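User: ok so my PI wants both of these folded by tonight, can you help

Assistant: No problem, let's get them done. Here's the first:
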Amino acid sequence: MRMLYLNSKHFAQVADCDELMSAIERAYDLEQSGSYAMPHRIHLEHQGNTLLYMPCFLNSVFGTKVLSLFPDNPKRGLPVISGLVLLHDAETGLPLAIMDGAAVTAYRTGAVSGLGIRYTAKSESRVVGLIGAGAQGFYQVLFASRARELEKALIFDHDRAKAEAVGKRIELELPHLKVKIAGTVEELLAEADLVITATPAIKPVLPDQSELLRNKSYVSIGSYKPEMRELPEALYKLIDQILIDTEHGLEESGDLITPLRDGWISKEKIVPFGKYIKGSPAARKDGETTLFKSVGMALFDLTVAESIYHKALNQGLGTQLD
């Protein structure tokens, strides 16, 4: 029995943004048709650290992502997120591949956001603002730049060195984008028409001021626990609906739990993205403020992992393990 091992360098060699956004769109098709089996992800906390265990079954493959989030790892010179994705053949149960879990997470989260931007952001969006320069930062800008014809990226992080590191990578790998390190969130909002929040914040990272938030497209990916929040009350008063990538988020994210509990938005205004993209939404109007909220699910990981596996196999990339 042979398995394929794919690390982050292998991912960089084979990953194609458009193909991965198509894999995410396939995941939404599967979700709407019910052609999958996926329990709620197992979420364990211990001494401030987090273990996520995310299994999912398709007709062709099944797999599990095991991910750890250790917030103090940067002090040790180690990444916050690490883990593995195990991919199996659905007919025999035999393992097909072992993959770098952080790489799967980075690319699939970027692809989820990119698809959200493709369907919700203004077609004329040219400036993206990224709040949070962590492990997701570069990939969010990468996929946003494939979803819209961006010209400029503004980066803000309380740790300016992290913002500068992401900015340098964008300049190196996406040379068509001008990069600016914003000194404040307000400075970023003054220029950006597309705003991505990718932080572990427990208090909103955006100002609670409607005049600064209006007429922009927002993608929020950071809040995946009830106590975590990135978005202020004022934003909910500007939007007609929240598009969510998975209904599990209603139980997991503080950016959904808090506004529903406190009456900032009604549940009727929360729309599953899978239903939205399969319907016939009216053309987006100028001046509209939109919000796409993502918490992620194993179905996304599995469709991306399967896509990467077959492409790597066809190209003879990766390490074969006996």
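One down. Here's the second:
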Amino acid sequence: MSGLQELIKRLKYDFRNPSLLARALTHSSYANERRSPIPSNERLEFLGDSVLGMVAAVYLFNRENGAEGELTKLRAALVCEKALYSYAKKLELGSFIRLGKGEQRTGGASRPSILADAFEAVVAAIFLDGGMDKAREFLVPFLESELSNQSKLRFHDYKTTLQEIIQQNPEEHLDYVLTGESGPDHNKQFTVEVHLNSNVIGTGRGHSKKEAEQQAARQALKLMGYDK
């Protein structure tokens, strides 16, 4: 296939059987248009989904100390369509997928579902060609990058972070108290205090109560040394 060697360089994996990669890049729309039908990537997608889930589970088990529920949420975030789409875009996978004429005309090469499925199929192709270790080597850099993104997103939810910290001491209790409201309706400014039991541990301001609460929680985290 034209350009296959370029993709192999991007994958950083040298296939012993390049036909596996060619199949991983064959969308069903292309396969069905051939006079002599050829296999699409759908079966590889099925296998790749399982390989990806296993690699992500082991990776998180070794990296994170969270409870089962937290690990489950993180794994889901690492292997969801949105994440797989971002992995595929990093490889510019859309440039290499074989699509039927109809899918080409309607922008299939940039459709998140098609790119995510193709990425799973590529994972399966590497697994079948080189085994689980090679699949893991290929996947871990993507997982590391996405986990870093997830950590930033979780940390920016200051209220949740603060709540998780306070919950470690069951006798402690948080309250968010609206203490001020000013400005015209189209540009309101709210002030909120966060109380730990009866003590004020943070004050925040924002154009909505939720934003003010987040800023109050952030100030509390700074006071506690959790927000550098």
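The mean pLDDT is 90. The chain has eleven helices and three strands. Good luck tonight!
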